[in-house]
Structures are given as structure tokens and as C-alpha cells.
């Protein structure tokens, strides 16, 4: 994955270069692509690369089965995030529908899947910009209605390096900065894999957004003593009652925000919403290798024999999401989410009822 500046709008963009099978392997302890939207997009685009090279078939039935099997394998790699499962379902359905058309050909099925994957990329970028702008306006109305600047704290990486571009929670910060209303941003290092220190800090510096990196253990002190106006984080899955799964450490941020009386926002595309699950207790939480905690740059620092628990995500209860859930369709209170998304998506002949293939 290469990070390059866009010549058109001076924003940070990600160029993903993949070959056959490269995007269809189960993530290893050192993933090169991360972020729920980016993983879904790279997975689908990797399949597009294979189809462009002539993989699958011969015959329509064999080609559709090839598409479905490849996508089904990829879904198993990321159980907590819903984006990959939903993208896989949509892509597999598109292949099946095209194959059922009168006069269908293998070439037409391949072209349909490739076009759908490219459309997903473009839609994610549009959705991210909407999330950023809607979230920025809502946040300003809540914490600075009479004008002035705000200070925002965020967690993990939710920017161009985790999406098709622009970002979700980091997109809100980006939009606030573009409006001239951002005083400062704080980003956590996000232990143990340090996505905040390695990725978010890079994006903030690249965009010349005033920002400070802090350790995860400093968030309460930062909120108490550094004038933080709001907390904005992303999400890998949002369920029907508004509970959200996000990078581990998010839950404690929500508790800190609640204690200090500042709004806590979750920014995520509607593709991250899974109305099939009623509460966060039903979300499968992925666990990562112990070495992420015991080792630093390949050198063990923890005492041999110590036990390790390393969940990649935690679940934030909906009643702690006091600012709202920011989607490309609007900003909703957790209790409003199900009805709002169901109404909006249904009017567009879509569904958020579950990602099963």
C-alpha cells in the first residue's frame, strides 16, 4: 500500500497495488491493510484483479461459484467488522444476477463485478466526505453554537489510510480544520499496534492540522486539563441498539467523556451498521497475537511466562454515545439509528438487515 499526495485537491490518498490472491489472504500478525472500509475495498478490488486476469470458470456457474467462494473466504478473516461481509454479499449477488440475465457471458459477469468493486471505492470516498461535513456541523452546533474553535480527541486511525480517502472520525477533524474551526486535535498512540502514532499522526502532520500525540493512558488527563471539546471515534460495527465495536480503548474514552460532560461521537458509514444484531454482546471480538504486547520491534520486553489478553476491539454501550452516531445519511442518537437507517435505506431499495452471503 503506497501513500501518495493527490495532485488535484492536496489531500492524502491511498493507492493500493495488488496482484492475484494478494488481497485474499487471511490477515497475518503484521497486516499491510487495515481499517474496516479499506479492508473491504481492498478485498473486493483484489478479486477484481483476479477476474481481470481471467480467473474463474469455465462456465457461468463455475465463475459465480468462484466469486462467492473467494469472497466467503475473505469474510472469515475479519469477524468483528461488518463492512467486508456486506461488500462480499453485494458483490456475490451482483455476479449471480448478471449470470442470470438472458444471453449472459463470462466476460459480462467479470465486467459487472469489476465495475461494482470500482463503484464501492467511489461511494466510500463520497460517504466519507459527507460524514466529515455532517459531523463537523453537528459538533459545532453542540459545543460552539456562538462561534469559536473546538478541540477534538480521537482514537486509532480513521483517516485516508483506513478508508477510500478522507476518513470517518478523522474526516470530521479534517472538515473542522477546513472550516477554520479546529483549535487542536489530540490523537492517542493506540496501543498495542500504535495505529495512532504511526498512521493518524502521519496524516495530521501531512495535512498540517495542529495536533498532539498522547499515550492511551493520558486521555483522562487530556480531557480534564487540555480543553478537549468532544471525542470523535470510528467504528467497525454498529448494531441495532446503537452499541458500537471499535478499536480497544474506545470504551474507556466514552466513560471519560461522560464523566467530564463532553459529547462522545461515533463516525461510521451506514455499511458499518448491522441491524441484524440487537446488542453489542452479540459482536464477535477478534483477538490479536500476544507478541503485540510482549514484543517491541521484534524484541521481547515482557517477562517470559506472563499471560496475555489482547482483544483488538471493545464494545461501547449506546448510552455513552452522547454526541451521536455520524453516518453519511445524517447524525442520529443511538436510539434513533435503527428507524432512521431502515427508512432511508429502504427508500433506496437497499437493506442493512445482515451481511450473510
UniProtKB/TrEMBL annotation:
Keyword tRNA processing: no
Organism: Colobus angolensis palliatus
Subcellular location, record wording: Cytoplasm; Nucleus
Catalytic activity: 5-(methylsulfanyl)-alpha-D-ribose 1-phosphate = 5-(methylsulfanyl)-D-ribulose 1-phosphate
Role according to the record: Catalyzes the interconversion of methylthioribose-1-phosphate (MTR-1-P) into methylthioribulose-1-phosphate (MTRu-1-P).
Active site, per annotation: 236 (proton donor)
Top EC class of this enzyme: isomerase
The entry's keywords: Amino-acid biosynthesis, Cytoplasm, Isomerase, Methionine biosynthesis, Nucleus
Cited HAMAP family: Salvage_MtnA
The name this protein goes by in its record: Methylthioribose-1-phosphate isomerase
GO MF terms held by the record: S-methyl-5-thioribose-1-phosphate isomerase activity
Annotated signal peptide: none
NCBIfam families referenced in this protein's UniProt entry, alphabetically: eIF-2B_rel (TIGR00524), PRK05720.1 (NF004326), salvage_mtnA (TIGR00512)
Record-annotated site: Transition state stabilizer: 156
Amino acid at each position: 500500500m503506497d501513500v501518495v499526495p493527490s495532485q488535484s485537491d492536496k489531500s492524502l490518498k491511498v493507492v493500493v497495488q495488488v496482484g492475484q490472491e494478494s488481497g485474499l489472504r487471511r490477515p497475518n500478525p503484521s497486516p499491510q491493510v487495515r481499517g474496516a472500509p479499506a479492508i473491504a475495498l481492498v478485498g473486493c478490488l483484489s478479486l477484481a484483479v483476479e477476474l481481470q486476469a481471467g480467473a474463474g470458470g469455465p462456465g457461468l456457474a463455475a465463475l459465480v461459484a468462484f466469486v462467492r467462494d473467494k469472497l466467503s473466504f475473505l469474510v472469515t478473516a475479519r469477524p468483528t467488522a461488518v463492512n467486508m461481509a456486506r461488500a462480499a454479499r453485494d458483490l456475490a449477488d451482483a455476479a449471480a444476477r448478471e449470470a442470470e440475465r438472458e444471453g449472459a457471458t463470462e466476460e459480462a459477469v467479470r465486467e459487472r463485478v469489476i465495475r461494482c468493486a470500482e463503484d464501492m471505492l467511489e461511494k466510500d470516498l463520497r460517504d466519507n466526505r459527507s460524514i466529515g461535513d455532517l459531523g463537523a456541523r453537528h459538533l459545532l452546533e453542540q459545543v460552539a453554537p456562538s462561534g469559536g474553535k473546538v478541540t477534538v480527541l480521537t482514537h486509532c486511525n480513521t483517516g485516508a489510510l483506513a478508508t477510500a480517502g478522507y476518513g470517518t472520525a478523522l474526516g470530521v477533524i479534517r472538515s473542522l480544520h477546513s472550516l477554520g474551526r479546529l483549535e487542536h486535535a489530540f490523537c492517542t498512540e493506540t496501543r498495542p499496534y500504535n495505529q495512532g502514532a504511526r498512521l493518524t499522526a502521519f496524516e495530521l502532520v501531512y495535512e498540517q492540522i495542529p495536533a498532539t500525540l498522547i499515550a492511551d493512558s493520558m486521555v483522562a488527563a487530556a480531557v480534564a486539563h487540555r480543553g478537549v471539546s468532544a471525542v470523535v471515534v470510528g467504528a467497525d460495527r454498529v448494531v441495532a441498539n446503537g452499541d458500537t465495536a471499535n478499536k480497544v480503548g474506545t470504551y474507556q474514552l466514552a466513560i471519560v467523556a461522560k464523566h467530564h460532560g463532553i459529547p462522545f461521537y461515533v463516525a461510521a458509514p451506514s455499511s458499518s451498521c448491522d441491524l441484524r444484531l440487537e446488542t453489542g454482546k452479540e459482536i464477535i471480538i477478534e483477538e490479536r497475537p500476544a507478541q503485540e504486547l510482549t514484543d517491541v520491534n521484534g524484541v521481547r520486553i515482557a517477562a517470559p511466562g506472563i499471560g496475555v489478553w489482547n482483544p483488538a476491539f471493545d464494545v461501547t454501550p449506546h448510552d455513552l454515545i452522547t454526541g451521536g452516531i455520524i453516518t453519511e445519511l445524517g447524525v442520529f442518537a443511538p436510539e434513533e439509528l435503527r428507524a432512521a437507517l431502515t427508512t432511508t435505506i429502504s427508500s433506496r431499495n437497499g437493506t442493512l438487515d445482515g451481511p450473510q452471503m
